[in-house]
Amino acid sequence: MSKVLMKGNEAIAQAAIAAGCNAFFGYPITPQNELIEYMSKYMPDKGAFVQAESELAAINMVYGAAAAGARAMTSSSSPGLALKQEGISYCAGAELPAVIVSVSRGGPGLGGILPAQGDYNQATRGGGNGDYKVIVLAPNGVQEATEMVRKAFYLADTYRNPVIVLADGVIGQMMEPVEINTEALPLIAKPWASDGNLSRGHRNVVNSLFLNPVELEKHNQDLRAKYDLIEEKEVDYELSHDENAEVMFVAYGTPSRIVKAAIENLKAEGINACLFRPKTLYPFPYEALKKAAQGKKFVLCAELSMGQMIQDVRLSLEGSVPAHFYGRAGGMVFEPKELVNAVKDHLGGR
Amino acid sequence: MTVVFKKTKGLTDAPFSYCPGCTHGIIHRLVAECLEELDLLDHSVAIASVGCSVMSYEYFNCDAIQAAHGRAPAVATGVKRVHPEKIVFTYQGDGDLASIGTAEIVQAAHRGENITVIFVNNAIYGMTGGQMAPTTLPNQVTTTSPRGRDVSKTGEPIKMSELMATIPGATYIERVMTADPLSVRKAKRAIKKAFQYQKENKGFSMIEVLSSCNIGWGLSPNDALQYIKNEMASYFPLGVYKDKGV
Amino acid sequence: MRGEVLFNTDRCKGCSLCVHACPVHILALDTTRVNAVGYNPAYCFDMSKCIACTNCATMCPDTVITVKRLDI
């Protein structure tokens, strides 16, 4: 199959349908509107598409559809994701597979509609209540966004857990050549689903309420054991290895591609740098990052925020290597030369 | 001897968590009897809400999903849209449906979701200890209207059936009560019709049931039934507010 | 006797709604005993007057009551 030129939001939607998404519930918000529009047009007749009255309702429709066994998805952008936190916590608590695509924009508040990464903490720490974790995948372009959406459905079904694909406005809005995997993603049995089919011989209940503290603690311990397994098995990252690198960038999503250009520019000036790119933001590649950073003069974390992932970078390094930060926000995107200058500054004005 | 009344198979054997005399139990039984009599139990999904009836997923003898506060109609939408052949119903109180969940209930009706909503109106937040609800009657004393509901500051009680009947997408809206054997039997007929309509793909139904909260109201169980009949039903008139299904 | 009411006594919460619903006034709470959940349970003190109207079971919030009707 040849590649086609597609807008990120549409490619994500097409990849989701190809991965067997049969229930989509969304609400308009820039810059993810093409995604919900694509779903309204191309969701197969047997599937469900609802333009909900709010992001709150949309995530709760996902909760219902997922509880009833569907491959359910919603998408939104930053302020919309804030509204979805209640439902994400419920999905996590009831152990429901759900895919949430976040095409993030600048904040806080209504913020702006241009790309930003100020929702790292929102995605990885979550704004919902309780001890829970959401798997967070961070694509760096349209092709990878389609692959990660597919993987998100796989991970959601496998772990019975919500998965966020954290894209940014650049990925949602830009067009790139993509090849979408159309191979059927195998269905995973959901004997726990509350789908109104008592021929299974017993009733199913999907629930996150445990009034007995002994049971609720056990539930939290079981969830923690699941997260331990996810942390053990699902960490993913890209390391552009360079034995001679004296500096290591850390970046995810669109900025990681700007970093690659900066690395080329630095090389031309005789400075060797490499890139460590987390592809899973939860589970975060703490150990791999620390290992990759050893021997470097410093690590420079570049984000389209005022500094969020930098906290995880510092946790990874445990003080073993100095960590610096360079960030732009509000829809402003750094250019390679800004990163080059930042590196040179930290190298002592070389 | 012929058994003319016994516990329906539509209920599990779990004892209700409700206070003595609370008519939630009666309404649960009516819903369960209707599901059994219409032969719907093996292909129904109950959506429990938040409030006193939060545990209703333990009581209805069918599949069940517990929803976040006010979101039951959205959760029901999710289920019904992926399983249109199944019977999906929500069971919600007045705090859940008429306060925190007004957007979800109005929009589910607006879309004409083919679901059944059982709306239990007891004019108070029972589960949390008897606070004022949007449906609390004028001058009614609650723990957050200790001098009685002052409508000049808190508004007049919201009439959900009247409101819902104005929504073009809604099919069947009726208000009933559980004040005495006759009204309970009438309530059952309304609930049964709502499920029958869903079975026939006729669209959105909501049955508002005026129910007691004798503990929250500070009345004996029997006096609370008189309160439903004399006070609540005079502010919230019983009757069919809309029926597009006939 | 036209009917018989049976109480699943240990589910009874002693709310007395059945007592008030009975048109022939043959139900009461048994103040001489306490059931498994701590209430004085409802009981029938004169079954001979039961008319099997089912009002008691209709008003019982806890599905305590089964009603039988005498076959004629």
Chain-wise SSE layout:
The complex is a heterotrimer of chains A (350), B (246) and C (72).
Chain A: E1 4-7, H1 8-18, E2 23-26, H2 33-42, E3 48-51, H3 55-67, E4 72-76, H4 78-93, E5 98-104, H5 120-124, E6 135-137, H6 142-159, E7 162-168, H7 169-173, E8 175-178, E9 205-206, H8 213-233, E10 237-240, E11 247-250, H9 254-268, E12 273-278, E13 280-282, H10 286-293, E14 298-303, H11 309-317, E15 323-327, H12 336-346
Parallel strand pairs in A: 2-3, 2-4, 4-5, 5-7, 6-7, 11-12, 11-14, 14-15
Antiparallel strand pairs in A: 1-8, 6-13, 10-12
Helix pairs in contact in A: 1-2, 1-6, 3-4, 9-12, 10-11
Chain B: E1 2-5, H1 24-37, E2 44-48, E3 63-66, H2 72-82, E4 87-93, H3 94-100, H4 102-110, E5 116-121, H5 151-154, H6 160-165, E6 170-177, H7 181-199, E7 204-210, H8 214-217, H9 221-235, E8 239-243
Parallel strand pairs in B: 2-3, 2-4, 4-5, 5-7, 6-7
Antiparallel strand pairs in B: 6-8
Helix pairs in contact in B: 1-7, 3-4
Chain C: E1 3-7, H1 17-21, E2 27-29, E3 42-44, H2 55-59, E4 65-69
Antiparallel strand pairs in C: 1-4, 2-3
Describe this structure in words.
Chain A is α/β, with parallel strands linked by helices and 350 residues long. Chain A has helices at 8-18, 33-42, 55-67, 78-93, 120-124, 142-159, 169-173, 213-233, 254-268, 286-293, 309-317, 336-346; strands at residues 4-7, 23-26, 48-51, 72-76, 98-104, 135-137, 162-168, 175-178, 205-206, 237-240, 247-250, 273-278, 280-282, 298-303, 323-327. Chain A has two domains: 4-196 and 205-233, Thiamin diphosphate (ThDP)-binding fold, Pyr/PP domains (Rossmann fold), CATH 3.40.50; 238-346, Rossmann fold (3-Layer(aba) Sandwich). In chain A, helix 6 (142-159) links the parallel strand 6 (135-137) and strand 7. The longest helix of chain A is centred in the middle third of the chain and has 21 residues, at 213-233. The mean pLDDT of chain A is 97. Chain B has one domain (24-243): Rossmann fold (3-Layer(aba) Sandwich). Chain C has 72 residues and is an alpha+beta fold. Chain C has two helices and four strands, in the order E-H-E-E-H-E. Chain C has helices at residues 17-21, 55-59, and strands spanning 3-7, 27-29, 42-44, 65-69. The radius of gyration of chain C is 11 Å and the shape is globular. The chains are: A alpha/beta (350), B alpha/beta (246), C alpha+beta (72). Chains in contact: A-B, B-C.
